Amino acid sequence: MDFKRQLEDKTQTVNKWLEQLAPRGSGIYSEIFDAANYSVNAGGKRIRPVLSLAVCELLGGSEQAVMPFACALEYIHTYSLIHDDLPCMDNDELRRGMPTCHVKHGEAMALLAGDALLTYAFEIISHAKVDGEVIAEAVRIISHSCGANGMIGGQVIDIKGTKSYEEQVELARMKTGALISAAAEIGVLASGNRDDNLKSAIMSYAQNLGIAFQIKDDLLDVEGIEAVIGKKTGHDAETGKRTFVTYLGIDGAREKLQDYTAHAVASIDVFGEKGFFLRNMAEYLLSRTK
Ligand code: GRG
After folding, report:
1. What is the pTM of this model?
2. CATH architecture of the region 3-286
3. From the CB of 224, is ligand 1 less than 6 Å away?
């Protein structure tokens, strides 16, 4: 099966599980579910849960074991986007071509929808039908990756602004890379495969992929097509935010993107032919247009 077909299959699997596990409730507070599900279903690429699924399968694990953790990560990713779009952060009105959560549901409801998704992620993890020790380890991996020493710390660096290329790499490692690494790590965890060499290979792949992903995001903000990305481009330049493009220029950033992608791909040499999907995933993210 070709890569595009495999990606579509995995994305469909993710969407099926997200639909099954969607936060639900009724009553006079039910707008919170509308707001949360509005953003979960607003056209995301599902890269993180697809990565978790692919890693788990590569190491011999099952869809059932990994998907609750993978969906939890997608809920956390969605919460971060909702909060990132708020007027007190980036103040964006469009994401993925649709009005952002606060434009659609109001600022207070969007703030709460983000909070609800973050909390719900851990509820989902607690219900996973795997050993308690695996659940505890998943909570450790995911909470660390999205906390102050991970994604939120990265957002703080972003708000304060970077002063050097090295700080820019640190920002990318924390803000973007932490969740991508966590996606890979929970795939390893859920697979039950405890081969340390294979885990190191996967983690090196994910760490390089995370930085490459942010470099691509910075490039898209400069040279992407608004109608394809579904949000305003040029935001970084407009707000004076320093990015990889500021430090490296467009050509330099493209070169680094190639380098990090090549390192990601080389990291998983050990899997040989079985690494087909992950190798192609890295190439796909390099050339993505949104
Ligand atoms: C907790 C407020 C708060 C922020 C955390 C993650 C984050 C920091 C902010 C989100 C904005 C942003 C540009 C993050 C960098 C990571 C990134 C490129 C996110 C977009 O991920 P995609 O492309 O999104 O996977 P889709 O739309 O496909 O789900």
Report:
1. 0.96
2. Orthogonal Bundle (1.10)
3. no
